[in-house]
């Protein structure tokens, strides 16, 4: 039997056997593929092997499940309506977008995929397996991050409905109340981002109702409850309902950790000042300072910068009585 390469009879002079070339490439990849100095290419839309996989029913812009699926004309690439409406050229191929048409057939497939998954079963998508609730929240957060608020609200609403169904069957367990309180809070954030203040307040109040059923020993629950109350107060404050704002801020005082308490005290004091209660406002700012000053943090701790900035603001309120209250993050 001849030892010649079986591809040699079709090779031209000076060319190498393609099989040997492949073997050399494989050997090269084995030797140098794991070296730290080698930077592998990454797809910005998540299709490379080093990032999570985008499923066939996902929008490559927001990376969440398609919502109000729309097709670009003439290239026919498909995205969420809210996502693609911000573009004049197709993000995938660069073609000019002449118009956008709804793709009801694809959207019905997405809706069926969501509805088929029972809340008690896991959803397998993008090479991972998640509980239905976690799956919906994950895609809602992706959509929210990409400012596709309608999509985020729709997924969170489905998740809230699932949890309400479990509450009807299993009763008000601590785990379910905690989950529903968190989801309702996220729905409130969606409504606030969409400019719907009244719906946002309703969701935050529902969140507070369920979180209040839980034991106050759970610091995570306490913090979430304090955040929801402060957000209600903020929305009431912006609507000029100062008495309601003060009530929400006051209610959150007994719930937060030290920084949250100081921020809430500052907000109550500022509201008192706007109501004309200057003495109460000064007392509130002083109480917030007394709350923060004993808090000693290491320079490496992340809360140190926030503590110092809040202290600086509080002290300025005692010297400049007319300074407005800036936005303080909880």
List the helices and strands and how they pair.
Layout lengths: L17 H15 L36 E5 L4 E3 H4 L14 E4 L1 H13 L5 E4 L2 E4 H14 L3 H22 L3 H20 L3 H15 L7 H20 L3 H10 L6 H17 L3 H15 L10 H17 L11
Antiparallel strand pairs: 1-2, 1-3, 4-5
Overall description:
The protein is mainly alpha-helical. The chain has a domain at 265-330. The protein is 55% helix and 6% strand. The chain contains 12 helices and 5 strands. The strands form 2 sheets. The protein has a 3-stranded antiparallel beta sheet. The longest helix is centred in the middle third of the chain and has 22 residues, at 149-170.
Summarize, please.
This protein has 330 residues and is mainly alpha-helical. The chain has 12 helices and 5 strands.
Task: Indicate the mean pLDDT.
Answer: 75
Assembly state of the chains shown: single chain
> How many extended strands?
5
Distance between the termini: 80 Å
State the shape: globular
What value does the Rg take, in angstroms?
28 Å
The H-and-E topology, N to C, reads as HEEHEHEEHHHHHHHHH
Helix content: 55-70%
Specify the biggest β-sheet: 3 strands, antiparallel
**Stretches where pLDDT falls below 50 for ≥5 residues?**
1-13, 322-330
Structural class: mainly alpha
Number of helices: 12
Q: Roughly what fraction of the amino acids lie in strands? A: 5-15%
Strand order of the largest sheet: 2-1-3
Organism: Spirodela intermedia
Protein name: RING-type domain-containing protein
Domain RING-type: 59-93
GO molecular function: ubiquitin protein ligase activity; zinc ion binding
């Amino acid at each position: 039997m001849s030892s010649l390469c079986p591809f040699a009879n079709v090779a031209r002079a000076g060319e190498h056997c393609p099989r040997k070339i492949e073997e050399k490439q494989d050997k090269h990849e084995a030797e140098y593929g794991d070296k730290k100095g080698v930077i592998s290419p990454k797809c910005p839309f998540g299709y490379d092997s080093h990032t999570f996989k985008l499923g066939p029913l996902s929008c490559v812009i927001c990376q969440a499940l398609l919502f109000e699926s729309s097709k670009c004309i003439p290239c026919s690439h498909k995205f969420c309506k809210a996502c693609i409406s911000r573009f004049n050229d197709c993000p995938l191929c660069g073609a000019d977008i002449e118009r956008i048409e709804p793709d009801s057939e694809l959207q019905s497939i997405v809706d069926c995929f969501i509805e088929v998954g029972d809340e008690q079963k896991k959803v397998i998508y993008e090479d991972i397996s998640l509980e239905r609730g976690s799956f919906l929240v994950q895609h809602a957060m992706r959509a929210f991050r990409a400012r596709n608020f309608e999509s985020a609200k729709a997924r969170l609403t489905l998740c809230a409905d699932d949890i309400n169904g479990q509450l009807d069957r299993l009763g008000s367990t601590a785990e379910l109340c905690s989950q529903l309180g968190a989801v309702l809070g996220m729905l409130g954030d969606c409504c606030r981002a969409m400019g719907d203040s009244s719906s946002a307040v309703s969701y935050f109040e529902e969140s507070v109702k369920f979180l209040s059923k839980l034991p106050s020993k759970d610091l995570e629950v306490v913090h979430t409850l304090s955040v929801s109350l402060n957000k209600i107060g903020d929305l009431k404050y912006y609507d000029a309902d100062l008495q309601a704002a003060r009530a929400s801020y006051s209610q959150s005082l007994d719930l937060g950790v030290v920084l949250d308490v100081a921020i809430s005290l500052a907000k109550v004091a500022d509201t008192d000042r706007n109501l004309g209660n200057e003495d109460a406002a000064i007392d509130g700012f002083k109480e917030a300072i007394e709350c923060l000053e004993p808090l000693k943090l290491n320079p490496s701790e992340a809360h140190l910068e926030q503590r110092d900035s809040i202290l600086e603001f509080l002290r300025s309120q005692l010297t400049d009585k007319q300074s407005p209250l800036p936005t303080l993050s909880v």
